[in-house]
Amino acid sequence: MLDTFRISVCLYIFVPAFISSTLAEDSIKYDDLDTWEAPPEIRNNFVYYLSGFDFEDRPIWIAETGKWDARKIFDAGGEQLKMLNKHIDQALYRYNQSLSIRSTPESPVTEGVVLLDMEGYDMRQLGHTRTIQWVFKKAHDVEVVARRMAKGFMINVNFIGERLINILKPVLGPSLARTDIYGTNNGTWIPKLLRHLPKESLPAFYGGSADFVPAAVYG
Ligand SMILES: *[C@@H]1O[C@H](CO)[C@@H](O)[C@H](O)[C@H]1NC(C)=O
Ligand SMILES: *[C@@H]1O[C@H](CO)[C@@H](O)[C@H](O)[C@H]1NC(C)=O
Fold it and tell me: What is the Cα–Cα distance from 167 to 71, expressed in whole angstroms?
């Protein structure tokens, strides 16, 4: 607890300066996001997928963010970190592209749905300053794309995950306001998910159909 407290206090103080200094540097653009494939060690450890569509044909994206071990990538350094950044930029790009999949002139789809599974998130990530700095920086990119998010869900959020959410609040503010945050008791959140999302668009372990098949897996 003490540790996380110290980290969040420290972030609140230096983060505004950090953001303005990194935004300028973060102007690399890619032109191969349609075809590029991250190396397997990135894809297998930073899993996300298009699970299906909601009742209004909005794409539903699920990411197992609690298991995303960014710290390991920092420990590996250089090239791996570049790949991870690109992997995430590609996810955001695909999210954007997916809005048009079921969009028609009569009923345009302009927003999507995001579900982040925070299972597994722990102090190894939150307690590592450089990882948190990086998360903060990526959260800015996420926020830009999340303006086109109708509804968000974060599930399996433990108290360490709550700390992270508090740290990211200044960046994610408006999209967090459209996000329901649930703890680790699936009996609480499964009924709520099913109010918004069709069973056939959810894996069984999130309350979906036994024969669920994701629309597309990237990982
Ligand atoms: C997503 O689409 C919006 C609107 O077309 C655009 O402003 C934004 O740059 C796109 N973001 C990504 C990551 O492609
Ligand atoms: C909900 O969690 C319990 C306890 O961990 C587990 O036994 C059960 O299989 C879970 N339900 C679903 C639908 O995965």
Answer: 17
